[in-house]
Structure formats: C-alpha cells, structure tokens
C-alpha cells in the first residue's frame, strides 16, 4: 500500500458523485496533510451529477431502480451494461436511465454499428481470402481515410487523458461508424472478381481498424475487446502500441481466428 499512498510517482485520480466532493477535496486531504507523513494527495477529481431512473430518483429502500441482482437477472451481458452506463454518464448534468434507451443503444450502436463492422470484416476475410489478411496496396482515397482515423484516434487519446470518459467512447464508436461507411462505399464483395487487389485492400484496412477498435474499447468493454482479439488471432495486450495501424504482426498473410457474433438484439 505504501507504493500507492506514499509515493512521489503516483497521480491520484478519484471518481465519485457530486455529493461526496466536500469530504474528498477538503476533509480527507486536510487529514493527510495534518498527518505530515508523506501521503499521496489528490491530483484529479472527476465527479458526476445524478443518474435518474425513468424520470425519478433511484431508491433502494423503495425498490425504485435497477441494482446489481436485477441487472444480472436480465441476462443482458455486462459489456452492454457498461456501454450504456458509460455513454449515459451524467458528467455535466443529470441523465436518465431508461430501459427503452438501453435497448436502442444496444441494437443501433453496438449491434448494427460495432458488431456489424467486426462480423462483416472477419467473415469476409474468412470466406473470401482463406482466413488470411490480403495484401494492402493503399490508394490515395485509402490514405485520406486512414489519416482521418489517425486524427480521431489522437482525439480519443486526448479525451481520455482529460478524463472525458463519455467523449472517448463516442469517438471510438465514431471510428466504427465511419469505417462501416468506408466498407460500404468500397463494396469489396462487388469488386472481388474484377479488382481483387482493391477489394483486398479495403477489407485489410477494415481488419486493421477492427484491431484498433479492440484497443480503444478495452477500457470500456474489456471482454468484447478480448473476443475481438481472439477472432483476429492477435495478442490481447491492449497497450497503445497495439493501436498502431498495420503493425508487424497484422499485415498480409496473417491468419485470423473464427468469426463470432458480438452482440444480440434486445427486443
């Protein structure tokens, strides 16, 4: 514990609801200063407003809201809960938990956006290229697209460094959305016979961005990231170095794993 609480190398970040701010910014730090024993002091405080439940207040006493056992009993995967609560995080104003909104975000954002991109990409590599990443021969349009992805990735890093948690996951999902559009515009399924090199480049670029997304989404949905890494047959070391496009272990000839469905529809 001394490596954490008595170290000049630790930057202490704390996350809490706004009602806990007085204690953690005044009373507790004052106690540590008063002890005069070299304790680590608060570096950055990140607070939230209140999360409401269907327009009202959560109340465990009155049985109003959804709690740990309730969430588990729904059968909804933990990753979906994590995604919904983090995208709905009340960072600057109160936000509202709504069951209908949870279903919409799962179906439209996780299933139709992220899940669709990952499954279409990996399945295409498996079915059309024998499970191996095809050769990448970048055209100008590909380079311009990748430049936009790099810019979004830099934006994501800046947001997480500034502890803008909701903005970070939105940026990651934007990368997924624009890559879906890139795949749709590229139509590799149509060009496979007439221009296999171009079709291969499109799908290889998408595969590399899927790998990037596994890294960017790891702080939010770690099990989803690990599943993506398994499907791609790459390391699940989600460091910044693994966020680089076209790394040495993921280029032409890399053999992927087995495609799996990441998300299912919530009715």
Automatic annotation (TrEMBL):
<dbReference type="InterPro" id="IPR033911">
    <property type="entry name" value="MetRS_core"/>
</dbReference>
<dbReference type="GO" id="GO:0005829">
    <property type="term" value="C:cytosol"/>
</dbReference>
<keyword id="KW-0436">Ligase</keyword>
<dbReference type="GO" id="GO:0005524">
    <property type="term" value="F:ATP binding"/>
</dbReference>
<dbReference type="Pfam" id="PF09334">
    <property type="entry name" value="tRNA-synt_1g"/>
</dbReference>
<dbReference type="Pfam" id="PF19303">
    <property type="entry name" value="Anticodon_3"/>
</dbReference>
<protein>
    <recommendedName>
        <fullName>methionine--tRNA ligase</fullName>
        <ecNumber>6.1.1.10</ecNumber>
    </recommendedName>
</protein>
<keyword id="KW-0547">Nucleotide-binding</keyword>
<keyword id="KW-0067">ATP-binding</keyword>
<keyword id="KW-0648">Protein biosynthesis</keyword>
<feature type="domain" description="Methionyl/Leucyl tRNA synthetase">
    <location>
        <begin position="1"/>
        <end position="121"/>
    </location>
</feature>
<dbReference type="InterPro" id="IPR015413">
    <property type="entry name" value="Methionyl/Leucyl_tRNA_Synth"/>
</dbReference>
<keyword id="KW-0694">RNA-binding</keyword>
<dbReference type="InterPro" id="IPR023458">
    <property type="entry name" value="Met-tRNA_ligase_1"/>
</dbReference>
<keyword id="KW-0820">tRNA-binding</keyword>
<comment type="similarity">
    <text>Belongs to the class-I aminoacyl-tRNA synthetase family.</text>
</comment>
<dbReference type="GO" id="GO:0006431">
    <property type="term" value="P:methionyl-tRNA aminoacylation"/>
</dbReference>
<dbReference type="GO" id="GO:0000049">
    <property type="term" value="F:tRNA binding"/>
</dbReference>
<keyword id="KW-0030">Aminoacyl-tRNA synthetase</keyword>
<dbReference type="InterPro" id="IPR014729">
    <property type="entry name" value="Rossmann-like_a/b/a_fold"/>
</dbReference>
<feature type="domain" description="Methionyl-tRNA synthetase anticodon-binding">
    <location>
        <begin position="140"/>
        <end position="266"/>
    </location>
</feature>
<dbReference type="GO" id="GO:0004825">
    <property type="term" value="F:methionine-tRNA ligase activity"/>
</dbReference>
<dbReference type="InterPro" id="IPR009080">
    <property type="entry name" value="tRNAsynth_Ia_anticodon-bd"/>
</dbReference>
<dbReference type="GO" id="GO:0017101">
    <property type="term" value="C:aminoacyl-tRNA synthetase multienzyme complex"/>
</dbReference>
<dbReference type="InterPro" id="IPR041872">
    <property type="entry name" value="Anticodon_Met"/>
</dbReference>
């Amino acid at each position: 514990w001394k490596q954490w609480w008595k170290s000049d190398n630790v930057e202490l970040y704390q996350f809490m609801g706004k009602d806990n701010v007085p204690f953690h910014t005044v009373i507790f730090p004052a106690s540590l200063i008063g002890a005069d024993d070299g304790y680590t002091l608060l570096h950055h405080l990140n607070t939230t407003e209140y999360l409401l439940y269907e327009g009202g207040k959560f109340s465990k006493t009155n049985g109003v809201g959804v709690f740990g056992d309730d969430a588990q009993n729904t059968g909804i995967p933990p990753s979906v809960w994590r995604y919904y609560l983090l995208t709905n995080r009340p960072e600057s104003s109160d936000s509202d938990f709504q069951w209908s909104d949870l279903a919409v975000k799962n179906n439209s954002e996780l299933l139709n956006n992220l899940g669709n991109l990952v499954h279409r990409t990996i399945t295409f590599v498996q079915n059309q290229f024998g499970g191996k990443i095809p050769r990448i021969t970048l055209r100008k349009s590909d380079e311009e697209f990748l430049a936009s992805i790099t810019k979004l990735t830099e934006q994501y890093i800046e947001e997480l460094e500034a502890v803008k948690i909701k903005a970070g996951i939105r940026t990651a999902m934007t990368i997924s959305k624009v890559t879906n559009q890139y795949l749709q515009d590229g139509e590799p399924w149509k060009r496979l016979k007439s221009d296999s090199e171009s079709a291969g480049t499109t799908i290889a670029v998408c595969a590399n961005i899927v790998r990037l997304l596994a890294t960017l989404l790891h702080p939010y949905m770690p099990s989803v990231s690990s599943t993506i890494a398994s499907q791609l047959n790459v390391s699940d070391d989600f460091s910044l170095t693994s966020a680089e496009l076209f790394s040495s272990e993921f280029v032409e000839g890399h053999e992927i794993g087995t495609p799996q469905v990441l998300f299912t529809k919530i009715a």
